TrEMBL record, chain A:
This is Nucleolar protein 11. GO terms for biological process: maturation of SSU-rRNA. InterPro entries: NOL11 (IPR042859), Nol11_C (IPR048897), NOL11_N (IPR012584). One of its GO terms (molecular function) is RNA binding. It is found in: Nucleus, Nucleolus. One of its GO terms (cellular component) is nucleolus. Residues 373-388 have a biased composition (Basic and acidic residues). It comes from Champsocephalus gunnari. Residues 1-338 form the Nucleolar protein 11 N-terminal domain. Its main location: nucleus. It comes from the Eukaryota.
UniProtKB/TrEMBL annotation, chain B:
GO terms for molecular function: RNA binding. It comes from the Eukaryota. This is Anaphase-promoting complex subunit 4-like WD40 domain-containing protein. Transmembrane segments: none annotated. SMART domains: WD40.
């Protein structure tokens, strides 16, 4: 999971009066990842050391002059390049104090921007679309600049892309509502023109972001309607000559983000890596209509990975350099470090997801933005069918309420009424059909329940979760709500069916489960299958007293620490073989064990558990481990059960998180000793296995040579 | 298309024997190979390395050295005799006692007038070569210690002899030893052991090259008697040397199984400044390389591991052609298995005995790929030891399983078998013409026996209940003196076809007992012939892998054969390096021809289109994966099965099941003695 970390302010802002513009013109990388050059929209250029939140130097042009493009750092010559009043190129070094005394050159045409990349000659892009290398331009500043763009065509955005062998300049233009992309190559100089596919009329992309990989430029752009598109532009030319008509640029929808009311005005999308896009200026899907959020979305899985509220107005500006996002908001200019670990299906769905459940999931539908929003496009054959059924249904259920009506209803109506209507809706309609609205439905229910103490509809929520169309990102508060309402059945369902529960929530569940008294737990209704698993596990206990009414007094002993050790030794069963928790508690804990997690993110949350709970949980894990390893029990019933690796991983995690505390806790001593002996025996076993690994590999490699023997009668067929 | 029940037989313990000596005749391009059991094999290098002649061995006669003299082939062995071979009748012509104890080497002068043998008693004996025999001429000065190796100087005036610890140069005229070259012993523990000069080469510039038991290849100046250079090649023995005809290259075979090449090259300065440089090392043998021959384009080596390896020198041949491919000849190019297809019997021919086996039975049915349960195991019915000291040259069992015949070079034996009671009765009164045979064959109704004898003639013998009667001798008009190596009779008993090593194929009409026709001569030797049971077409496969079909009725090549020649055979078919050794027909489907070599068996369906050069020849796997309807589009006439390997025999029994006799090379290798110990890594 990607994460946004605590940000800090780089500097204050002096936005323009009407707050239309942040006052920041551009942010450019300097000598290393920790330095940036920030150009404000008027007169000054400032060099920052980011980690120190400190400005190192600042340069200002004379009153009356304005900087018209962001200053860039030419790492080749260790000089800064900026343009004032569109025509004057200024070049200075860090030790220069007065910009006015620095080198100046006036060119014959208006400059749009200067682009610079590490160790490469800066490139000057004119507003006419012409491109020059800085050094060749400076050698003859007054050289004529040709017009590349048409009369009413204006550059909207530009950047340079550095490939293995060359640098390219790409820029987008707008002409009478049409958008074009230009790709300028050097050596030989070629210019390729692409036409961007039009979105709804009148909509032009709000922001662009380009990245390069494998000889292709990946262009990601955001439209005011929240659609994020991706276009892949090949770096190698198609051989089209100059003046050829613009090629259509194929695009694919990456994300369709919720925009709240109206269209977006100031928003920006920035590519972070192949799978992640940072978006600013859009509402958080679960936090109302406010658009002041910075979010990271996974484009592969269409999931929200991290979100952060930015105080103050969002200007729709966003820069990203070396794992830091630079964002002006309100009256401050913030730096937010982020992290995008390589995402995989395993980490998205959770590495501990059992294959069995994955299979069953595959048959049901995984919520996907593409399906939700572009169902028609994605699989037209299917929709024909569903449309037919939908129309028939509509005609049948004319008196019943539509989705929107139900949504309204949820906000106001009584529990019974809501229950009736939603159940009706669920029973009426095909779940696949409903999928887009289920999330909204659930979110609405949850927000009402959170707001109104008395309002809670456990059965409907359970039903919704069981459709398997929901995920945590769609209604992030559902699990916590269930915990609050002590609806452990719903918790179980969520843990079971949500592929993307954050580690913090998993941990909260674990904390609640482990700390709740067994007597409470036994009252809970849980999924029968998981109970039967636990029953089989606990049936192994030979101590009949320990299982009265499914309640094990042993657990109390554990909670109250080691005083009863002596007693236990007298019984025939060693203490490790008695389940330290009650039946239902075990079931819930199993559910936690089976959820997906990433240890990196789980570990900090695990530290919140109290030592007593850790000991109890460890005892339970040890019990499971012994059961599994002794009785050769695992998965033989075809029930959903934690795997041995899951159990071991959790043991390791718990020990990692609490080792020092446990080492000093007297009651944990025996437990740790036991675990130590396990580990020792395991290590010994593995080292022995390691010794014969080579031979075993060879065995595997050996061709299964059938022993033919001296004589056999076989049947062959020739074709 | 065709489903077969296959009897997969691996109980034929065929074991080839080690190669002791070889001699290459550059003029006729024939390689003579002597094996440890005394057998002699002639390979025709001009005809795809076809093993055209085999002279069976004899107890106690193992050739230690071979020597060609024009077309004549001489051998000498540790029994102290010199033997000349009759290559037309495939037997020793005469033997001459040298009276010098065991003979270690034999060498003729380049003029072809004298033969020198090196004897255990220290003498080099010179024999004069006469028209029809050899005659002892004189001894050179007798030395102390045995003469291990010999080589004439090309001028014929000098002889170099390798001995223990030394090399002597003799003046062939006077018989005096003119030089004594002392060969250094090995270092260390072998210091106390005499060094044996195993092999020696005398070049026309008076350079002597020797290979010895201390692992050295030494270059000597024969004029001054000085050592020029020593190459330490191995820790073990250098057993064989052979030089190319132009004397620019010498190869040495070692006990480690390697062959090391030395070339006479100018190091850097001028063409005058040439020296013998070690250039290449080949490792194609697991055991001692006992014999070597240096042809113009290749190095031929053989030794304890029984395989004959032809390793082309890549600077002498065109790269990536069939000529540049290495050949390993591990199996004989003739069949040692005879199958009684009506009785389900297999006759295995060993040099000193015959084994008759009855195949097992299974009543199960299975789908392709299955192994069926064996209801009755195969059993060895008879093991018949030969009489006399000559090894068996050919054998046959009649299709009904009632007769068994074998021949050595000196005797012929016919047995009556009673299968039910397993009794063997020797037929005592044989026709007196039937003394020896090179090929044997029974008619399909088991009433006639055909035995090929001298000058390509075939004896026809009539068999009835218990005795046999001479009927006729079929003689071809051509008067070729070469032996018949293939014999086949048609199913209906009307035709008999013979093929000899002159590439002549004669067809006799057995009703009229006279020659019917001679098939147009093709340049390559036939390796298998068969007559189609229904349409009487003769199918011939040659050593160069060509296939012909000749209509005996029309006396011309059939339409299919012409088509095949016009289209040309598939390149992969032509690249196979073992000859087709047997042809059979499928009575169920007359368009099917079944043939096999060592690595595959093939059913040619004459009704199907011939494969184009670009279509894959081995397409059985592809066809298997295709649905039935598409197969016909992709299938072609050659249906090749490589499932069984190292095939010695593929026959179709009368119940339409196939018999394949496999002899995996690994089984042979596992029975070889341990090779010399070599240090490998940490052993």
């Amino acid at each position: 999971m990607a994460a946004l970390y605590e940000g800090y302010t780089l500097c204050g802002l002096t936005p323009s009066q009407n707050l239309s513009n942040s006052g920041i013109q551009g942010v450019e990388p300097e000598r290393d990842s920790d330095h940036v050059v920030v150009t404000d929209s008027r007169r000054s250029v400032t060099l920052f050391k980011v980690s120190d939140q400190k400005s190192l130097s600042s340069w200002t042009v004379k009153q009356g002059q304005t900087l018209t493009c962001s200053a860039v750092y030419n790492s080749k010559t260790k000089e800064y390049v900026a343009v004032s009043d569109s025509k004057v190129i200024r070049i200075w070094k860090e030790e220069d104090i007065h910009l006015d005394k620095a080198f100046k050159a006036t060119v014959s045409s208006d400059i749009w921007r200067v682009h610079s990349a590490a160790e490469l000659e800066p490139v000057v892009l004119f507003q006419t679309g012409a491109v020059r290398f800085l050094d060749s331009l400076l050698s003859a500043p007054k050289q004529p600049i040709e017009d590349v763009l048409a009369q009413e065509e204006a550059i909207r955005w530009s950047t340079n892309v550095v490939t293995e062998s060359q640098q390219l300049v790409i820029f987008t233009t707008e002409q009478k509502g049409d958008n074009f992309l230009y790709l300028q190559r050097f050596n030989p100089n070629t210019l390729q023109k692409y036409r961007l596919e039009g979105e709804e009329p009148g909509l032009s992309p709000l922001s662009f972001s380009a990245s390069y990989k494998d000889k292709h430029i990946r262009l990601v752009y955001l439209y005011p309607n929240g659609h994020v598109y991706q276009s892949i532009v090949p770096v190698r030319g198609l051989g089209a000559d100059e003046g050829a008509p613009a090629l259509p640029l194929p695009r694919s929808l990456l994300l369709a983000l919720p925009v709240g009311e109206g269209l977006l005005e100031a928003a920006s999308a920035q590519v972070l890596d192949e799978a992640h896009v940072a978006v600013v200026g859009l509402p958080h899907p679960s936090a109302g209509a406010g658009k002041d959020f910075l979010c990271i979305w996974n484009t592969n899985f269409q999931t929200l990975q991290a979100g952060k509220e930015m105080k103050g107005k969002i200007y729709g500006q966003l820069w990203g350099y070396s794992n830091k996002l630079f964002i002006p908001h309100g009256k401050s200019f913030s730096v937010i470090p982020y992290e995008c670990p390589k995402s995989s299906l395993a980490s998205a769905l959770g590495k501990l997801r059992q294959t069995k459940t994955e299979e069953s999931k595959a048959s049901t539908s995984v919520p996907s933005w593409n399906n939700i929003l572009h169902e028609d496009k994605a699989n037209p054959s299917k929709t024909v069918e569903t449309r037919k059924t939908r129309t028939t249904r509509k005609s049948q259920s004319a008196p019943s309420l539509t989705n929107d009506q139900i949504m309204e209803l949820i906000k106001t109506a009584s529990v019974a009424e809501v229950q009736k209507e939603v159940e009706g809706l669920l029973s009426r309609t095909d779940v696949q059909d409903l999928q887009p609205s289920l999330g909204q439905l659930a979110a609405a229910l949850v927000s009402r329940s959170l707001g109104e103490e008395a309002f809670y509809t456990p059965s409907i929520l359970a039903q919704l979760v069981q459709t398997r169309c929901l995920c945590h990102s769609m209604c992030p508060d559902l699990v916590l709500l269930a915990l609050e309402k002590k609806d452990y059945f719903l918790c179980q369902l969520c843990l079971q069916f949500f592929p993307d529960i954050p580690e913090a929530v998993t941990c909260a569940c674990l904390k609640t489960f482990i700390s709740m008294p067994d007597s409470d737990a036994e009252k809970v209704n849980l999924e029968p299958e998981s109970i039967s698993l636990m029953e089989t596990l606990m049936a192994g206990e030979r101590d009949p007293v320990g299982l009265q009414n499914g309640f094990s007094p042993a657990t109390n002993d554990m909670d109250q620490a080691g005083g009863t050790e002596a007693e236990k030794k007298e019984t025939t069963t060693p203490p490790e073989h008695i389940c330290p928790v009650g039946l239902h508690k075990g079931v819930l804990l199993n559910e936690v064990l089976m959820t997906a997690y990433s240890d990196f993110f789980l570990l900090p949350h695990l530290k919140d558990l109290s030592p007593q709970h850790v000991v109890l949980f460890l005892r339970y894990l040890q019990f499971l481990y012994l059961k599994y390893s002794q009785d050769a029990f695992p998965q033989m019933h075809g029930l959903r059960s934690p795997t041995l690796t899951q159990i071991m991983d959790w043991v390791c995690l718990l020990l990692d998180a609490h080792f020092t505390v446990l080492a000093m806790t007297p009651e944990a001593k025996g437990l740790l000793h036991n675990l130590h002996t396990f580990v020792k025996s395991q290590v010994r076993l593995f080292s022995e296995l390691g010794k014969i690994e080579g031979s075993l590999h060879e065995l595997n490699k050996m061709k299964v040579n059938k022993d033919i023997g001296q004589y056999s009668i076989e049947v062959i067929e020739l074709f | 298309m065709a489903e077969f029940k296959v009897h997969r037989v691996r109980f034929f313990d065929y074991m080839p024997t080690a190669i002791r000596a070889m001699a290459f005749n550059h003029r006729t391009e024939r390689l003579a190979v002597a094996r440890a059991d005394g057998a002699l094999e002639i390979f025709n290098f001009a005809d795809n390395y076809f093993q055209e002649k085999v002279i069976p061995g004899q107890d106690g006669r193992a050739a230690e050295a071979l020597c060609w003299l024009g077309q004549r082939l001489f051998s000498a062995g540790l029994n102290g005799e010199i033997t000349e071979y009759d290559l037309e009748n495939l037997r020793p012509r005469y033997t001459v006692e040298a009276y010098g104890g065991p003979i270690w080497s034999i060498s003729s002068n380049s003029q072809g007038t004298l033969l020198a043998v090196g004897c255990e008693d220290g003498t080099v004996k010179i024999f004069e070569i006469l028209e029809d025999r050899i005659q002892f001429q004189r001894n050179l000065d007798r030395q102390k210690g045995r003469i291990i190796s010999l080589c004439w100087h090309p001028s014929g005036t000098l002889i170099a002899a390798g001995m223990m610890d030394m090399i002597k140069i003799f003046d062939a005229e006077s018989g005096r030893a003119t030089h004594r070259l002392l060969v250094e012993r090995g270092v260390g523990a072998s210091k106390s052991r005499e060094v044996v000069v195993w092999s020696i080469v005398f070049l026309s510039d008076h350079t002597i090259i020797s290979g010895d038991s201390a692992g050295k290849v030494q270059v000597w100046d024969g004029l001054t008697g000085t050592l020029v250079r020593t190459h330490l090649v191995t820790k073990w023995d250098v057993l064989a040397l052979s030089s190319s005809q132009d004397e620019s290259s010498v190869v040495a075979g070692t006990s480690e199984g390697t062959v090391v090449q030395f070339q006479f090259l100018s190091s850097n300065v001028g063409p005058q400044d040439k020296e013998w440089v070690r250039t290449r090392t080949f490792k194609n043998h697991s055991h001692d390389v006992r014999a070597l021959a240096h042809t113009d384009t290749a190095v031929v080596s053989g030794g304890m591991d029984t395989q004959l390896v032809v390793r082309p020198l890549l600077d002498k041949v065109e790269k990536n052609t069939q000529e540049s491919a290495m050949r390993k000849i591990a199996f004989p190019h003739r069949s040692l298995v005879c199958c009684a297809k009506k009785a389900g019997l297999l006759l295995f021919q060993f040099p000193d005995h015959l084994e008759l086996w009855r195949l097992g039975e299974s009543n199960g049915h299975g789908s392709p790929g299955d192994s069926l349960p064996v209801k009755r195991k195969p059993e060895k019915l008879i093991q018949l030891k030969r009489k006399g000291e000559d090894h068996i040259s050919c054998s046959a069992v009649s299709p009904c399983g009632g007769w068994l015949a074998y021949s050595t070079v000196s005797s012929f034996r016919l047995y009556r078998l009673q299968n039910n009671t397993i009794s063997v009765t020797k037929v005592s009164r044989l026709p007196k013409d039937l003394r020896s045979a090179q090929q044997l064959c029974f008619s399909s109704d088991s009433t006639k026996l055909f035995a090929s004898s001298c000058r390509s003639s075939v004896l026809v013998v009539d068999l009835n209940q218990s005795d046999c009667k001479y009927l006729h001798t079929l003689r071809p008009k051509s008067g070729s003196s070469q032996p018949v190596h293939l014999l086949c009779v048609s199913e209906d008993g009307k035709w008999l076809a013979t093929a000899n090593t002159d590439c002549l194929i004669h067809v006799f009409n057995l009703d009229k007992l006279k020659l019917h026709c001679t098939v147009p001569v093709y340049s390559s030797c036939p390796t298998a012939i068969a007559i189609h049971p229904t349409n009487s077409n003769l199918v011939v496969v040659h050593a160069d892998q060509q296939i012909f079909e000749y209509s005996l009725v029309q006396k011309e090549y059939t339409e299919w054969s012409r088509k095949l020649q016009k289209r040309g055979l598939h390149p992969l078919w032509m690249e196979r390096d073992t000859p087709i050794t047997h042809i059979a027909f499928n009575p169920k489907n007359p368009a099917h021809i079944i043939l096999h070599d060592t690595f595959m068996f093939c059913i040619i369906d004459q009704n199907l289109p011939l494969p184009e050069a670009k279509t894959p020849l081995y397409n059985q796997m592809t066809l298997r994966s295709l649905p039935e309807s598409e197969r016909i589009m992709h299938s072609h006439a050659f249906k090749i099965c490589k499932h069984f390997q190292h095939l010695l025999c593929v026959r179709l029994l009368e119940d339409h099941s196939l018999v394949v006799v496999e002899r995996p090379l690994l089984d042979i290798q596992s029975q070889l003695p341990a090779p010399v110990r070599q240090k490998k890594f940490a052993t």
